[in-house]
Amino acid sequence: MERKFYHNAFATNGDTFVSLKIFHQKFEPFPIPHNAFDNLEVIFSDTTAKVNWNKPALLGGMAQGAWQQWVFEIRVEDAVLQNSTAIVNLTESSCVLQELSPNTVYKINVRAYNKAGKGPWCSQFIGSTFKSIDLRYTFPTIVWGTRDGLLQSNIVGDDIVSLLNTIKLNRMAVRDVTWFKDSIFINANYTTLFVYNTSTYSFSKISNIFSIKSIAIDWITPKIYCSNPVNQMISRMNLDGSHIETLPMMTLAKEIAVDANN
Prior knowledge:
262 residues, mainly beta, 5-stranded antiparallel sheet
């Protein structure tokens, strides 16, 4: 008897059909993970990578309580040398890859399996590790805004600490963040621009800003660029908010970026 199955259908020839119950292990084998998943996420550092994914989608007709105790396999391949490594028997939908080479492009795949068989590989993720980081002199971090305020973590999203809570931000949500050297500029509620210095821990509000959709920094000048959704214009100013200039254009810019070199 074939132990593998995806779906079984029974014809009743129009007669009254009450129920069918099969409890024997031979008739209820482990299902094979039939579906792949396309939500593979990878964040690289210089020698590590944090990999996350979701379980395969259920087949049609299966409820959320259906058996899903899959184990997972990760395939990691050096895109240049084409050397691959497999990590198997993972029970969680995340994994931290160690001992990667700095400044190297990797191809990463994940699939689910069990003792009945293996499912298809997910879509391939291609990314590169950073150049070698000397932690004696530099400690790269990610700064991001949430409903809880301004947070900071390492470059793979771990070791999260709070820089500014919502009370300090007058209970306003962080909508956009940019930075220049040791200063972080915070767009709060699309109405207020704050600046926080990570060296002196000073915190202040930039005046004369009342409507702001997005912010960006010109590192060479240096200048702050702001998009105003009410006037549908883009303006620029010094880092302290002085000498505001309006650019000769009308646009409702939801996101702005500055190419300082050109």
